[in-house]
Amino acid sequence: VEKAKILYNAIDASDGYFEGHARREARSLMNVTFRLPTPELEDRFCDEATDAGLNGLRGHRSLGGVRASIYNAFPREGVEALVEFMRDFSQRNG
User: Fold this and answer.
1) For residues 18 and 86, is the Cβ–Cβ distance under 8 A?
2) 62 pLDDT band (50/70/90 cuts)?
């Protein structure tokens, strides 16, 4: 719950740059999905995230988007690193 809250707060605070797929009341605690303003930015985001050591963020192969799987074994520090990357990316590409 704590890790999902950190990530959803970053999405919600992005002024629409990152937009969640699910309605707030239906949000997953384990798989956080979101979109960026364009598919091209989504590709750049995922490529740069991988280069930064944040792996496995590319969303569904036919639907696109971004998916962060934050199951129990995934550390809080990983979520915090992703949120920092998201902030930096949106500042550079917003």
Assistant:
1) yes
2) confident
Instruction: Fill in the amino acid letter for 58.
Output: R
Q: How are beta strands 19-20 and 58-60 bridged, if at all?
A: unpaired
Instruction: Provide DSSP, 27-83.
Output: --SSEEEEE-SSHHHHHHHHHHHHHTT--S-EEETTTEEEEEE--TTS-HHHHHHHH
pTM: 0.93
Cα separation, 36 vs 43, in Å, equals 9
Residues contacting 20, CB < 8 A, separation 6+: 8, 11, 12, 27, 32, 33, 34
User: Could you tell me which residues come within 8 angstroms of residue 69 by beta carbon, excluding any fewer than 6 positions away?
Assistant: 30, 31, 56
> pLDDT tens digit string along 16-34?
999 998 999 999 999 999 9
